[in-house]
Write a structure and sequence with these properties.
single chain, 156 residues, alpha/beta, globular
C-alpha cells in the first residue's frame, strides 16, 4: 500500500519539517507517506476566502490518483482514537493499494474534495495550525504502527 499526504502549503516552518521528519524516519518504508505539497492560493485583504478554497480544491483533485482511497482531514469527520486508527491502518493495508490523506488550507477543504473523499477524519474538536496537522498525522501513523507491533510507545 502506498500512502500520500497531500497538504496545502509549500513553505512549512522548520519545526514542522523537523517534526514530520522525526516520525517519517521511525516509520517502516511500506508505511512512510510521500508528502505532496500543494501551493497555497494567494490571499488578499479584500479577497473572497471561498475563491481561494475552491482553487486549492481543484489543485488537490488534480493531484489525486483514480485508484486512491481518499481520507479528508476535516473537523466534521469521524474522530478516531489511536487504537481505532491502527484498525483503519490494517483495513487500508488489506483492502487498498493506495491511500491519500488530505490536509486543506486555512479556509478548509472545498466541497468537491469532501465529496471525493471515501472517509473523513477529525483529529480533534480543536482547530490546529495546518503545519501542526502534518506533524500530528505522521505521528499518529507511527503510533498506529507501534500499536500493531505491540511496541511500548503507545501507553494506555
Amino acid at each position: 500500500m502506498k500512502i500520500r499526504l497531500l497538504a496545502i502549503g509549500s513553505r512549512p516552518d522548520d519545526w514542522v519539517r523537523d517534526g514530520v521528519d522525526t516520525y517519517l524516519e521511525r516509520l517502516p518504508a511500506h508505511l512512510k507517506p510521500e508528502l505532496v505539497e500543494i501551493p497555497l492560493s494567494l490571499r488578499s485583504s479584500g479577497g473572497d476566502p471561498a475563491v481561494a478554497r475552491a482553487k486549492e480544491g481543484q489543485r488537490i483533485l488534480q493531484r489525486l490518483k483514480p485508484n486512491e482511497f481518499v481520507i479528508a482531514l476535516d473537523e466534521r469527520g469521524k474522530p478516531w482514537s489511536s487504537v481505532e486508527l491502527s484498525r483503519q491502518l490494517v483495513r487500508w493495508q488489506v483492502e487498498e493499494s493506495a491511500v491519500a490523506l488530505i490536509i486543506g488550507g486555512p479556509e478548509g477543504l472545498a466541497d468537491e474534495v469532501r465529496k471525493r473523499a471515501n472517509q473523513s477524519w477529525s483529529l480533534s474538536a480543536l482547530t490546529f495550525p495546518h503545519g501542526m496537522v502534518r506533524v500530528i498525522v505522521v505521528e499518529q501513523l507511527y503510533r498506529a504502527w507501534t500499536i500493531l507491533q505491540g511496541h511500548p510507545y503507545h501507553k494506555v
